[in-house]
Amino acid sequence: MTKPVDSPVQAEPAAPEAVQVSAPQRPRSVKRTVLNYVALTKPRIIELLLITTVPTMFLAAGGFPPFLLILNTIIGGYLAAGGANVLNMFFDRDIDAKMKRTKNRPLVTGEISPRAAVIFGLVLSALSTVYLWVLVNAVSAMLALGAIVLYVVFYTLILKRRTSQNIVWGGVAGCMPVLIGWSSVTGTVSWTAFLLFLVIFFWTPPHYWPLAEKFTRDYERAGVPMLPVVSSRRNVAVQMIAHTVAMVACSLAIIPLAPTGPVYAVAAIAVGAWFLALIIRYAVRVFQGRTGRDLHPMGVFHASITYLTLLFVALALDPFLRF
Protein backbone atom coordinates (compact mmCIF):
# COMPACT_ATOMS: atom_id res chain seq x y z
CA MET A 1 0.00 0.00 0.00
CA THR A 2 1.14 3.64 -0.59
CA LYS A 3 1.87 5.95 2.35
CA PRO A 4 -0.78 8.52 3.43
CA VAL A 5 -0.51 11.87 1.66
CA ASP A 6 1.19 14.38 4.00
CA SER A 7 2.14 17.12 1.49
CA PRO A 8 1.54 18.23 -2.10
CA VAL A 9 4.84 16.61 -3.03
CA GLN A 10 3.51 13.19 -2.02
CA ALA A 11 0.32 13.63 -3.97
CA GLU A 12 1.91 12.50 -7.20
CA PRO A 13 0.27 9.64 -9.11
CA ALA A 14 1.05 6.25 -7.67
CA ALA A 15 3.81 4.25 -9.24
CA PRO A 16 2.76 1.34 -11.44
CA GLU A 17 4.08 -1.06 -8.81
CA ALA A 18 1.80 0.41 -6.15
CA VAL A 19 -1.24 0.16 -8.39
CA GLN A 20 -0.40 -3.46 -9.05
CA VAL A 21 -0.18 -4.26 -5.33
CA SER A 22 -3.58 -2.74 -4.59
CA ALA A 23 -5.26 -4.70 -7.38
CA PRO A 24 -7.59 -7.56 -6.36
CA GLN A 25 -5.76 -10.79 -5.63
CA ARG A 26 -6.38 -13.92 -7.63
CA PRO A 27 -8.66 -16.47 -6.01
CA ARG A 28 -6.66 -19.06 -4.11
CA SER A 29 -6.48 -22.51 -5.64
CA VAL A 30 -8.67 -25.27 -4.27
CA LYS A 31 -5.58 -27.29 -3.35
CA ARG A 32 -4.10 -24.42 -1.32
CA THR A 33 -7.39 -23.81 0.46
CA VAL A 34 -7.74 -27.49 1.35
CA LEU A 35 -4.16 -27.60 2.65
CA ASN A 36 -4.83 -24.55 4.82
CA TYR A 37 -7.89 -26.17 6.36
CA VAL A 38 -5.91 -29.36 6.97
CA ALA A 39 -3.18 -27.27 8.63
CA LEU A 40 -5.78 -25.89 11.05
CA THR A 41 -6.36 -29.40 12.38
CA LYS A 42 -2.64 -29.76 13.34
CA PRO A 43 -2.18 -33.15 11.62
CA ARG A 44 1.26 -33.78 13.17
CA ILE A 45 -0.23 -33.67 16.66
CA ILE A 46 -3.09 -35.93 15.58
CA GLU A 47 -0.60 -38.51 14.29
CA LEU A 48 0.80 -38.77 17.80
CA LEU A 49 -2.68 -39.18 19.26
CA LEU A 50 -3.45 -42.04 16.86
CA ILE A 51 -0.18 -43.77 17.80
CA THR A 52 -1.61 -44.16 21.30
CA THR A 53 -5.18 -45.01 20.29
CA VAL A 54 -4.69 -48.04 18.02
CA PRO A 55 -2.25 -49.99 20.25
CA THR A 56 -4.63 -49.46 23.16
CA MET A 57 -7.36 -51.07 21.07
CA PHE A 58 -5.09 -54.08 20.41
CA LEU A 59 -4.43 -54.48 24.13
CA ALA A 60 -8.14 -54.18 24.98
CA ALA A 61 -9.05 -56.78 22.36
CA GLY A 62 -6.19 -59.11 23.23
CA GLY A 63 -5.40 -59.22 19.55
CA PHE A 64 -6.63 -57.62 16.34
CA PRO A 65 -9.98 -55.81 16.71
CA PRO A 66 -12.41 -55.73 13.77
CA PHE A 67 -10.89 -53.64 10.97
CA LEU A 68 -13.97 -51.45 10.58
CA LEU A 69 -13.91 -50.67 14.30
CA ILE A 70 -10.28 -49.55 14.04
CA LEU A 71 -11.04 -47.45 10.96
CA ASN A 72 -14.11 -45.80 12.48
CA THR A 73 -12.31 -45.06 15.73
CA ILE A 74 -9.41 -43.48 13.85
CA ILE A 75 -11.73 -41.36 11.68
CA GLY A 76 -13.84 -40.28 14.65
CA GLY A 77 -10.73 -39.53 16.71
CA TYR A 78 -9.22 -37.49 13.90
CA LEU A 79 -12.39 -35.45 13.52
CA ALA A 80 -12.55 -34.79 17.27
CA ALA A 81 -8.89 -33.83 17.62
CA GLY A 82 -9.06 -31.78 14.43
CA GLY A 83 -12.12 -29.86 15.60
CA ALA A 84 -10.49 -29.10 18.95
CA ASN A 85 -7.29 -27.94 17.25
CA VAL A 86 -9.15 -25.64 14.87
CA LEU A 87 -11.01 -23.97 17.74
CA ASN A 88 -7.74 -23.72 19.66
CA MET A 89 -6.15 -21.88 16.74
CA PHE A 90 -9.13 -19.53 16.55
CA PHE A 91 -8.85 -18.49 20.19
CA ASP A 92 -5.03 -18.35 20.09
CA ARG A 93 -4.67 -16.41 16.85
CA ASP A 94 -3.52 -13.28 18.71
CA ILE A 95 -0.81 -15.30 20.46
CA ASP A 96 0.19 -17.07 17.25
CA ALA A 97 0.72 -13.73 15.51
CA LYS A 98 3.37 -12.77 18.08
CA MET A 99 5.37 -16.01 17.90
CA LYS A 100 7.87 -16.84 15.15
CA ARG A 101 6.98 -20.53 15.42
CA THR A 102 3.30 -19.94 14.66
CA LYS A 103 3.17 -16.69 12.69
CA ASN A 104 2.54 -18.51 9.40
CA ARG A 105 -0.57 -20.34 10.54
CA PRO A 106 -3.58 -19.81 8.22
CA LEU A 107 -5.56 -17.67 10.67
CA VAL A 108 -2.59 -15.37 11.19
CA THR A 109 -1.77 -14.94 7.52
CA GLY A 110 -5.42 -14.43 6.61
CA GLU A 111 -5.60 -17.50 4.39
CA ILE A 112 -8.60 -18.63 6.44
CA SER A 113 -11.02 -16.17 8.07
CA PRO A 114 -11.88 -16.44 11.80
CA ARG A 115 -15.54 -16.99 10.96
CA ALA A 116 -14.73 -19.84 8.57
CA ALA A 117 -12.42 -21.40 11.14
CA VAL A 118 -15.08 -21.36 13.88
CA ILE A 119 -17.65 -22.94 11.59
CA PHE A 120 -15.12 -25.57 10.47
CA GLY A 121 -14.10 -26.38 14.06
CA LEU A 122 -17.67 -26.68 15.31
CA VAL A 123 -18.70 -28.85 12.35
CA LEU A 124 -15.76 -31.21 12.90
CA SER A 125 -16.49 -31.42 16.63
CA ALA A 126 -20.19 -32.15 16.14
CA LEU A 127 -19.49 -34.60 13.32
CA SER A 128 -16.96 -36.51 15.43
CA THR A 129 -19.46 -36.99 18.24
CA VAL A 130 -22.20 -38.22 15.92
CA TYR A 131 -19.78 -40.40 13.95
CA LEU A 132 -18.42 -42.16 17.02
CA TRP A 133 -21.86 -42.52 18.59
CA VAL A 134 -23.32 -44.18 15.51
CA LEU A 135 -20.38 -46.25 14.26
CA VAL A 136 -18.44 -47.01 17.48
CA ASN A 137 -20.37 -46.52 20.73
CA ALA A 138 -21.82 -43.87 23.01
CA VAL A 139 -19.03 -44.11 25.60
CA SER A 140 -16.33 -43.32 23.04
CA ALA A 141 -18.43 -40.48 21.62
CA MET A 142 -18.87 -38.87 25.04
CA LEU A 143 -15.17 -39.25 25.84
CA ALA A 144 -14.28 -37.57 22.54
CA LEU A 145 -16.69 -34.71 23.25
CA GLY A 146 -15.19 -34.38 26.72
CA ALA A 147 -11.69 -34.18 25.20
CA ILE A 148 -12.81 -31.35 22.92
CA VAL A 149 -14.28 -29.38 25.82
CA LEU A 150 -11.19 -29.98 27.97
CA TYR A 151 -8.83 -28.78 25.26
CA VAL A 152 -10.79 -25.79 24.03
CA VAL A 153 -12.32 -24.51 27.26
CA PHE A 154 -10.24 -25.88 30.14
CA TYR A 155 -6.81 -25.55 28.51
CA THR A 156 -7.10 -22.86 25.81
CA LEU A 157 -9.52 -20.42 27.45
CA ILE A 158 -8.87 -20.95 31.17
CA LEU A 159 -5.39 -22.33 31.86
CA LYS A 160 -3.02 -21.38 29.04
CA ARG A 161 -2.80 -17.65 29.75
CA ARG A 162 -3.18 -17.85 33.53
CA THR A 163 -0.91 -20.49 35.04
CA SER A 164 2.53 -22.00 34.54
CA GLN A 165 0.95 -25.42 35.11
CA ASN A 166 -1.19 -24.96 32.01
CA ILE A 167 0.32 -27.84 30.07
CA VAL A 168 0.19 -30.17 33.09
CA TRP A 169 -3.55 -30.00 33.67
CA GLY A 170 -4.43 -28.95 30.15
CA GLY A 171 -2.65 -32.06 28.95
CA VAL A 172 -5.55 -34.15 30.25
CA ALA A 173 -7.23 -33.65 26.87
CA GLY A 174 -4.27 -35.28 25.15
CA CYS A 175 -4.64 -38.34 27.39
CA MET A 176 -8.21 -39.04 26.30
CA PRO A 177 -7.41 -41.01 23.09
CA VAL A 178 -6.32 -44.05 25.11
CA LEU A 179 -9.66 -44.04 26.94
CA ILE A 180 -11.45 -43.66 23.62
CA GLY A 181 -9.45 -46.53 22.12
CA TRP A 182 -10.12 -48.81 25.08
CA SER A 183 -13.83 -48.00 25.27
CA SER A 184 -14.27 -48.46 21.52
CA VAL A 185 -13.44 -52.16 22.02
CA THR A 186 -14.92 -52.85 25.46
CA GLY A 187 -17.61 -50.19 25.86
CA THR A 188 -16.12 -49.35 29.28
CA VAL A 189 -13.01 -47.81 30.87
CA SER A 190 -10.80 -50.05 33.02
CA TRP A 191 -7.89 -49.52 35.42
CA THR A 192 -5.50 -50.57 32.66
CA ALA A 193 -6.84 -47.79 30.44
CA PHE A 194 -6.53 -45.35 33.34
CA LEU A 195 -2.87 -46.30 33.81
CA LEU A 196 -2.24 -45.66 30.11
CA PHE A 197 -3.99 -42.33 30.63
CA LEU A 198 -1.54 -41.55 33.46
CA VAL A 199 1.45 -42.54 31.33
CA ILE A 200 0.55 -39.82 28.82
CA PHE A 201 -0.45 -37.38 31.59
CA PHE A 202 3.01 -37.59 33.19
CA TRP A 203 4.73 -37.75 29.79
CA THR A 204 3.29 -34.43 28.59
CA PRO A 205 5.38 -32.00 30.73
CA PRO A 206 8.82 -33.50 29.97
CA HIS A 207 7.70 -33.64 26.33
CA TYR A 208 6.47 -30.04 26.06
CA TRP A 209 8.64 -28.06 28.47
CA PRO A 210 11.82 -28.56 26.37
CA LEU A 211 9.91 -27.09 23.41
CA ALA A 212 8.87 -24.16 25.60
CA GLU A 213 12.51 -23.78 26.67
CA LYS A 214 13.56 -23.57 23.03
CA PHE A 215 10.94 -20.91 22.28
CA THR A 216 11.02 -19.05 25.59
CA ARG A 217 11.28 -15.64 23.90
CA ASP A 218 8.27 -16.44 21.74
CA TYR A 219 6.16 -17.26 24.80
CA GLU A 220 7.45 -14.18 26.64
CA ARG A 221 6.50 -11.98 23.69
CA ALA A 222 3.04 -13.56 23.55
CA GLY A 223 2.51 -13.30 27.33
CA VAL A 224 2.00 -17.04 27.84
CA PRO A 225 3.31 -18.13 31.28
CA MET A 226 4.83 -21.47 30.32
CA LEU A 227 6.88 -22.87 33.22
CA PRO A 228 10.28 -22.35 31.48
CA VAL A 229 9.30 -18.69 31.00
CA VAL A 230 8.34 -17.85 34.59
CA SER A 231 10.48 -20.29 36.58
CA SER A 232 14.17 -21.20 36.84
CA ARG A 233 15.65 -23.86 34.60
CA ARG A 234 16.58 -25.83 37.71
CA ASN A 235 12.98 -25.97 38.91
CA VAL A 236 11.81 -27.06 35.47
CA ALA A 237 14.47 -29.80 35.33
CA VAL A 238 13.51 -31.14 38.78
CA GLN A 239 9.83 -31.24 37.81
CA MET A 240 10.71 -33.02 34.55
CA ILE A 241 12.52 -35.75 36.52
CA ALA A 242 9.56 -36.14 38.89
CA HIS A 243 7.07 -36.46 36.03
CA THR A 244 9.29 -38.93 34.18
CA VAL A 245 9.68 -41.16 37.25
CA ALA A 246 5.88 -41.18 37.70
CA MET A 247 5.42 -41.92 33.99
CA VAL A 248 7.77 -44.91 34.04
CA ALA A 249 6.16 -46.22 37.25
CA CYS A 250 2.72 -46.13 35.61
CA SER A 251 4.01 -47.87 32.49
CA LEU A 252 5.45 -50.68 34.64
CA ALA A 253 2.29 -50.97 36.75
CA ILE A 254 0.46 -52.02 33.58
CA ILE A 255 2.56 -55.23 33.32
CA PRO A 256 0.81 -57.22 36.09
CA LEU A 257 -2.55 -55.50 35.70
CA ALA A 258 -3.26 -55.94 31.97
CA PRO A 259 -1.70 -58.63 31.98
CA THR A 260 0.88 -58.09 29.29
CA GLY A 261 3.57 -60.40 27.92
CA PRO A 262 7.36 -60.16 27.73
CA VAL A 263 7.44 -57.87 24.67
CA TYR A 264 5.75 -54.98 26.44
CA ALA A 265 7.52 -55.71 29.74
CA VAL A 266 11.01 -55.59 28.20
CA ALA A 267 10.16 -52.52 26.12
CA ALA A 268 8.64 -50.62 29.07
CA ILE A 269 11.73 -51.27 31.20
CA ALA A 270 14.22 -50.54 28.41
CA VAL A 271 12.73 -47.38 26.93
CA GLY A 272 11.72 -46.13 30.38
CA ALA A 273 15.29 -46.45 31.66
CA TRP A 274 16.63 -44.83 28.49
CA PHE A 275 14.31 -41.83 28.65
CA LEU A 276 14.79 -41.33 32.40
CA ALA A 277 18.57 -41.36 31.89
CA LEU A 278 18.13 -38.76 29.13
CA ILE A 279 16.07 -36.51 31.41
CA ILE A 280 18.61 -36.84 34.23
CA ARG A 281 21.42 -35.95 31.81
CA TYR A 282 19.40 -32.91 30.72
CA ALA A 283 18.96 -31.89 34.36
CA VAL A 284 22.70 -32.26 34.99
CA ARG A 285 23.39 -29.91 32.08
CA VAL A 286 20.93 -27.43 33.54
CA PHE A 287 22.64 -27.54 36.94
CA GLN A 288 25.97 -27.03 35.18
CA GLY A 289 24.57 -23.78 33.80
CA ARG A 290 24.51 -24.82 30.17
CA THR A 291 22.16 -23.05 27.77
CA GLY A 292 21.20 -23.03 24.10
CA ARG A 293 22.86 -25.68 21.97
CA ASP A 294 24.82 -27.01 24.94
CA LEU A 295 21.54 -27.70 26.74
CA HIS A 296 19.90 -29.06 23.55
CA PRO A 297 16.24 -29.06 24.70
CA MET A 298 14.92 -30.14 21.30
CA GLY A 299 16.86 -33.38 21.64
CA VAL A 300 14.73 -34.17 24.69
CA PHE A 301 11.57 -33.10 22.84
CA HIS A 302 12.21 -35.47 19.93
CA ALA A 303 13.34 -38.26 22.27
CA SER A 304 10.05 -38.02 24.15
CA ILE A 305 8.18 -38.72 20.92
CA THR A 306 10.44 -41.68 20.25
CA TYR A 307 9.80 -43.00 23.77
CA LEU A 308 6.02 -42.85 23.46
CA THR A 309 6.07 -44.37 19.97
CA LEU A 310 8.25 -47.31 21.00
CA LEU A 311 6.23 -47.96 24.15
CA PHE A 312 2.92 -48.10 22.30
CA VAL A 313 4.31 -50.07 19.37
CA ALA A 314 5.41 -52.68 21.92
CA LEU A 315 1.93 -52.53 23.42
CA ALA A 316 0.42 -53.23 19.99
CA LEU A 317 2.77 -56.12 19.22
CA ASP A 318 2.56 -57.73 22.65
CA PRO A 319 -0.73 -59.68 22.12
CA PHE A 320 0.72 -61.33 18.99
CA LEU A 321 4.15 -62.23 20.38
CA ARG A 322 3.41 -64.25 23.49
CA PHE A 323 6.01 -66.94 24.12
UniProtKB/TrEMBL annotation:
What domain of life?
Answer: Bacteria
Q: Which GO terms describe its biological process?
A: heme O biosynthetic process
User: Reaction(s) catalyzed by this protein?
Assistant: heme b + (2E,6E)-farnesyl diphosphate + H2O = Fe(II)-heme o + diphosphate
List every stretch annotated Disordered: 1-24
Identify the pathway.
Answer: Porphyrin-containing compound metabolism; heme O biosynthesis; heme O from protoheme: step 1/1
In terms of InterPro entries, this protein maps to: Protohaem_IX_farnesylTrfase (IPR006369), UbiA_prenyltransferase (IPR000537), UbiA_prenylTrfase_CS (IPR030470), UbiA_sf (IPR044878)
Q: Which Enzyme Commission numbers does its entry carry?
A: 2.5.1.141
Give GO terms: molecular function aspect only.
protoheme IX farnesyltransferase activity
Q: Where is the composition biased (Low complexity)?
A: 7-24
- The UniProt transmembrane annotation reads 45-64, 70-91, 112-134, 140-159, 166-185, 191-211, 236-257, 263-283, 295-317
Please name the top-level EC class of this enzyme. Answer: transferase
Location(s) in or outside the cell: Cell membrane
One cellular component term (GO) for this entry is: plasma membrane
Q: Which UniProt keywords apply?
A: Cell membrane, Heme biosynthesis, Membrane, Transferase, Transmembrane, Transmembrane helix
Instruction: Report membrane topology.
Output: Multi-pass membrane protein
Which PANTHER family has this protein been placed in? Answer: 4-HYDROXYBENZOATE SOLANESYLTRANSFERASE, PROTOHEME IX FARNESYLTRANSFERASE, MITOCHONDRIAL
Tell me, in a sentence or two, what this protein's role is: Converts heme B (protoheme IX) to heme O by substitution of the vinyl group on carbon 2 of heme B porphyrin ring with a hydroxyethyl farnesyl side group.
The entry's other comment says: Carbon 2 of the heme B porphyrin ring is defined according to the Fischer nomenclature.
Similarity comment? Belongs to the UbiA prenyltransferase family. Protoheme IX farnesyltransferase subfamily.
NCBIfam families for this protein: cyoE_ctaB, PRK04375.1-2
Q: Tell me the protein's name.
A: Protoheme IX farnesyltransferase
Per the record, the gene is: ctaB
